[in-house]
Amino acid sequence: MQVVSTRDITEQKYAQEALQIRENSRRKQSKTLVQLARSKTFQQGNLNAVLREITETAAQTLLVKRVGVWLYNEERSKIECIDLYDTSTKEHSFGNSLSQENYPAYFQALEEERTIAADDARNDTRTQELSKSYLSVLGITSVLNAAIWLEGLLVGVVCHEHIGESRQWTSEEETFAGSIADFVTLAIEASERNIVQEALRQSEAQFRAIFERSSIGIGLIDMKAQIVDTNPVLCEILGYSREELYGKRFTDYISIQKGDLKLYKQLMSGIRTNSAKTSKLGFQSSKHQEQFVERHHIEMERRCLHQNGSLVWTHISVSVIPDSNGEPEFFLAMIEDITERKETELKLRASQEVAEAASRAKSEFLATMSHELRTPLNAIMGLSQLLQQEIVGSLNEKQNEYVSCIYSSGEHLLAMINDILDLSKVEAGKEELLLSPLPVSDLCNYAIWTVRDRAAEKGLQLTCKIDLPENICIADERRSKQMLLNLLTNAIKFTPVGNISLVVKKVPSGITFTVSDTGIGIEPSQFKFIFEPFKQLDSSLNRQYEGTGLGLALTRKLARLHGGDVTFTSILGKGSQFTLFLPNPVLSEAGEDEEDEEFQINQTPLSMLSDL
User: Fold this and answer.
1) What predicted TM-score, i.e. pTM, was given to this entire model?
2) How far is it, in rounded angstroms, from Cα 485 to Cα 555?
3) pLDDT beyond 80 at 296
4) What CA–CA distance (Å, rounded) separates 575 from 609?
5) From the CB of residue 418, how many other CB atoms can be counted at a distance below 10 Å?
6) pLDDT band per the 50, 70, 90 thresholds, residue 511
7) Which residue, among 207, 169, 163, 161, has the nearest Cα to 69 in the 3D structure?
8) DSSP H helical segments within 389-514, as ranges?
């Protein structure tokens, strides 16, 4: 008799098959992760390409319909789909977005959970907000979402979307989804790093191009004053190759002057002070760094030693380049060859000294000659007067005429000599003023009385108007009379018909004496010569008038010796107007000079002649 024993092992077989399926899934998932880790796409740093590979691989591994990567926008108000892979069409898309305001529970779940494994997504409390507007529309029943974290901040989510009957997600699948999210994090980091590195490469390339092609010498120097790098122009200025200059002390090629050490200490102290402020803040903005560089540098002119032994004049600008902690790391020296400019300056200075010496010699010669001419001239005029007075005998009519001519010519010559002597003394800086309070009416009456006969001889109307709250000015009496007489005499000389007026007014910080005439006027092209000594204006209208051209030149110099000036306006054929400005020393304080200047600038040529 044979006994057969049987046992139902169906459940055991199902269990083994399920275990085998899970084991195969784990192996497939592990293989996928290893494949992603070795992918060359990650090394290239192209974020779009990496995400495409991640979504395709994840969809094929988990056997889901769609896999998408969603990232927060800059305002963190919503997440936007930057890559969505659909296995049925095998196409990638992007552009959808989910607002945090519309789905608060879902966004809260993303913040709190590593993964959201919703078997029944439409009824799961974490995802049911998405049911009506997203899940039901696309036929999605189950979702496996894994949060993407970057430097402790939630930046997005990887969504695995299942379509069809509800699907129960295993713990291995949740772990795999989390790993996929980690790969997205790595891809974002790699992309950002690649962008930074590319920007750095471009920046270095641009700096190197500027460094090499700059028309100014550039040197990079460490804190021990050793040369780290130089550009071709600096090598040319010093006469050495880049290799010869590397490691040498920069100060060996620059002439050192007294005070350079103080400049260096000031530069370094400013840097350290700034660094201390930066360390307190804990960071240094790019704008702050720009100000840091602009504020902390020194400029100087020094001579550099060329290899052939010659000295090269240079303009040197030294700035400090800080490290990431704000501590000084390098000096950046910008060096410009200014030898040609310096040589020109030296030549100009030498020429100026020669010109000044010649001017002094001229003034001394004129002063000496004026003194020498006065002695015989005084004798001639004295003897002429004796003859006119007929002390030594009577003269006939013809002799009287000759003696009068000799005396008037002597007077004219003596006046010219006096002007030359006065001008020479002013130019030589030997003229001293005796300032005192003077009645303005007395000055004007003296000047008007002195020239009235000349004006009457030509039939000119001579007027004077004083518009002052106080009848006082501070000036040298003799020189102020001389300036007024020069201006009035000049006006009478160049006015054939019409009138001449003297108007005195109070202006900020001083007084103006304005002499207006209706004479021949001055051509605009001759304005620049009007105050030049010994300069007769080139005009056919004034060839008939005598003069040496010293009067106006002397008047302006005397006015400026007082701290004032002489200005003028003129219209050819209509007349001229000369204004003598004398400051009031009692009122001269900070700010008054600006008012004086404003007064002179605001004189409009035509308005001042409107009443001629």
Assistant:
1) 0.43
2) 10
3) no
4) 8
5) 15
6) very high
7) 161
8) 397-427, 440-457, 477-493
